[in-house]
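Hey, quick one: can you model this chain's 3D structure?
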Amino acid sequence: MIAGIAFAVLFAAALLMVPTLPGIDKPGYDIVSHVNEHSAAMRMQALLVTFGSLALVVVFGYARDRLTGPSAYVFTIGSAVVLVEVFIAMWFTAGLALHHDQLGSTTARTITDIAVMWGPILTVADIMVAVPILLAANDDRFPRWLGILAAVFAVEQLIETITIIGPPASFISPGGAMNFYLGGPLFIIFFLALGVALSLEQQAEDQAAAVDEPADQSDS
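Sure thing. Here's the predicted structure for all 220 residues.
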């Protein structure tokens, strides 16, 4: 639970710290102006995401321990892909801010075009993580409410893949409002809920074990 809360706080702060990069319909000099204005915050954002990713790894580890069969392997691969994509995205966005005073508009537009494809492609990795949790919830290894949230998250991410080919200046454009304002908060909420659910399930098992132990002793 602590790891889930830490992840949510750090990622939410990172999400709100810096406005979204100018959309794919904007010229390179708009990106240069954005980076010049927010360069320090962009690097701080990368730091928060880095620490938040450490907390997310803890949640992944505990969740993986409750999964079995093929879905466990899918979850493992999906978790690794999520982390790798997050790190690569931070390389590009934080890298823009290192020498913002020397940043050219063509270079800025090219690097940003690579970075904004993070959200559209991350959707597949999120589905790989959410669906095994949904299947495990159906088998009563997670609470039913978490299974419902996993289903909502997986469906939304599946729909969000349309942002790969979304037109410029639209809700579904790459790196646009759907990725940032819908997919981003759902990403945080789902993994926060996963951390909370794991903690509640462990507490319930510990309480059940504590109740059974005196009964066993009295029988002996």
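One thing worth noting: The two ends are 36 Å apart (CA to CA).
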